[in-house]
Amino acid sequence: MSEQPPTPTGDNPYLQRAYGLAGPEDARALYDEWARRYDADLADASQDYVAPRLAADTVVRVAGTDGTVLDAGCGTGLVGAELARRGVAVIDGVDVSPGMLEQARATGAYRSLEPADLTRPLDTPTDAYDVVVCVGTLTHGHVGPEVLPEFVRITRPGGHVVATVLGDAWDTGGYRAAVDDLVSAGRAELVSADATPYRAGAGVEARMLVLTAR
């Protein structure tokens, strides 16, 4: 019997593959293949991917609309489009998949879009952004907690990191421990990490992590 995915995926073959990715090359191949139908698949009532909208609401609530934002793991631009609708004007995006970046570019929401592997240290300068937002990337088979210190590094002191962490990965994937380490080291303040709907149609929740960089 094949191993079951850690969260409900329904009969979507792309979602089923997504939670078993072996690394960045595997992720690039999957998301390049999925890019053109990704938005429609996750907008389906069986999934109802509300996380981009809720994350954009969180960004505006904690940081307003005037700052510079990096959408890390921007995918097709769902988060960037939601931020732009709320009046955020300066949004950059990075993603491992050129196919996803092509879709994000079509939204018109981004100042710049660049390829990046979030499992490696980022080329982004220290203190570069007022907000780093990351939705749908900190999860099984994707990007681990080692990226959180990088997010804090590239966020200006007093700025914010807003990120979803899928379901039980918050504990089992080491994200809670990574946040505790950042707080203990005086690099960040934990504002909140509340449970929130993620793929509401499938009953999937995530933590909405909010950090203030120090």
UniProtKB/TrEMBL annotation:
* Residues in Methyltransferase domain copies: 69-159
- Would the keyword Methyltransferase turn up in this protein's UniProt record? yes
Q: Which GO terms describe its biological process?
A: methylation
Q: Which GO terms describe its molecular function?
A: polyprenyldihydroxybenzoate methyltransferase activity
Q: Where is the signal peptide?
A: none
DNA-binding is among the record's keywords: no
Q: Which InterPro entries match?
A: Methyltransf_25, SAM-dependent_MTases_sf
Kindly list any coiled-coil regions of this protein: none
Gene3D superfamilies for the chain = Vaccinia Virus protein VP39 (3.40.50.150)
Pfam families, per this entry? Methyltransf_25
Q: Which UniProt keywords apply?
A: Methyltransferase, Transferase
Its recorded name reads Methyltransferase family protein
